[in-house]
Amino acid sequence: MKFKVIILGVISLAFGCTENTKLPTVITSPITEVTWEYAATGGEVIDDGGSPVTKRGVCATEDESNPPFIDDYGTWYTIDSSGIGIFSSKIAVRWHGAAYNLRNTHYVRAYATNSAGTAYGEVLSFYPGDKPISESSFRINTIITTSTSAVVNFDYYYPIYTTVREAGFCYGTGQSPSIEGDHTLLSSISDGSDSVTIENLSPNTEYNIRGYEQNQAGIVYSTQKTFTTAN
To answer: Each residue of 131-180: pLDDT tens digit?
Structure first.
């Protein structure tokens, strides 16, 4: 009889612990950095709900109508240790298309899992950053000069996977001219053939010139060309 009483007491205690366990409380940290590869965020587990947090991290989706859940199709997530406290995370960016050049807005939030289940923080969103431009879209065709100016005729092919923030031509008498020196901006950036006029040059002087493009990831330069102004 005493043996039966002990067993019933243990069962009762076990069920009592399960009933008192709640979901953790977790918040999503602000997004502090966005690149073409990842977004830096994280979260904080404020309360473990009465049961140890065994897994925590951030999860992401591209589906605006459905918040990310770690067990949903189309959601990917990180695992950033366990327990209570602040944690940092980097969630990967997803690219699509035949050449992986297409991107969508990403939706992320922190999560924390204990024996009662998984709880989530606030949903935040970000748009992936620009990929580095792999090669210049400029092709300089002909350069027509006077003693103090040059008309540069060129072709341009706008890269589909990025947003070009600035483009133009760098020129000077030294090798590999850059935007740190003399340069001219294009008023518009689009596909096709165009020309730009460079003024205030010195007569009978050899110049080097190359096109440049700048996006969030950096600057890329075209092949250098050389021209000489008239005497």
So the answer is: 998 889 999 999 999 999 999 999 999 887 788 999 999 999 999 999 99
User: Would 116 be classed as within a structural domain?
Assistant: yes
Q: How far apart are CA 71 and CA 102, in angstroms?
A: 25
Q: What is the DSSP letter of 115?
A: T
**At 69, phi and psi to the nearest 5?**
-125, 140
> In terms of residue numbers, what domain contains 194?
138-228
Total tally of structural domains belonging to the chain? 2
- Assess whether 31 and 121 both reside in one domain: yes
The three-state secondary structure class of 123 is coil
Contacts 24+ apart (CB under 8 A), 218-222: 218/132, 218/133, 219/179, 220/132, 220/133, 220/134, 220/135, 220/136, 221/136, 221/170, 221/176, 221/178, 222/136, 222/137, 222/138, 222/139, 222/140
Both 122 and 161 in a single domain? no
Q: Is the pLDDT of residue 127 over 60?
A: yes
Rounded to two decimals, what is the model's pTM?
0.75
- Cα separation, 97 vs 160, in Å, equals 11
Place of tokens 């950096």: 218
* Window from 11-20, 22-31, 148-157 with minimum mean pLDDT: 11-20
Rounded distance between C-alpha atoms, residue 40 and residue 45, angstroms: 17
- Return d(Cα 151, Cα 144) in angstroms, integer: 5
Q: Element (H or E) spanning 15, and its range?
A: helix 2-20
